[in-house]
Design a protein that fits this description.
about 250 residues, 6-stranded mixed beta sheet, about 25% strand, 4-stranded mixed beta sheet, globular, alpha/beta, CNF1/YfiH-like putative cysteine hydrolases
Length: about 250
Amino acid sequence: MIYAKKFKKFKNISHAFFNNQGGYSTGIYKSLNCGYGSNDKKKNVYKNIQVVSKKIGFKTSNLIFLNQIHSSKFYFCKKKLNKKLVGDGLITNTPGLAIGILTADCAPILFYDNEKKIIGAAHAGWRGAYKKIVIKIVKYLLKKGSNINSLYFVIGPSIAQKNYEVGKEFKKKFINQNIKNAKYFKIIRKRIFFSLRDYIKGQLKDLGIKNIEIIKKDTYNSRNNFFSSRRSKKNNHDYGRNISVIMIK
């Protein structure tokens, strides 16, 4: 479990970024796999989510998940619905309602409006980030009356630039979006590497967000004990998912 320093002073919210430790799954899903979309045994995933619920302090039935699709779509939820929402972001102001994001190299983003008492979570891989999910969320919050200075964003554990090799067309796509995006790429021995977390941070900074934290834990590095899609796909077709959760107490 990793806690954001930016959130520690707020006693009315509970949150954590979880790695793959402390669960019930076995094999390639060892051990805290929280992804029902994986081929892991569903009963083990459920037991793992129960572990998370006890750590955060919510009822397992009060956790909202998304069917994540690498989009810029998000929802404001007052209560848990009977159906799973399709998208990549959740916002709520309901105490006791936990919202969770699943990742395996993509960036989990948790955020909090200290004045409006609103929390949120977003899933941003390169596609979601490119489609401006965090930009759209911030603009939505500001339209609803949030103050730019009361917004706190934390970019959780994700793949580090040194392990995120991309192709020429990938880089060209981002440069075509904005020439300033060139700063998020490094070329080492003719290989191109992309910084997802810095790209997302740059989007937030450009909007005027000052309260930003990056948790610099590389999910690709096996020593950090996170599930990693890129690392796992070298040997397996499937992989576990890390969970990041936030809740108003």
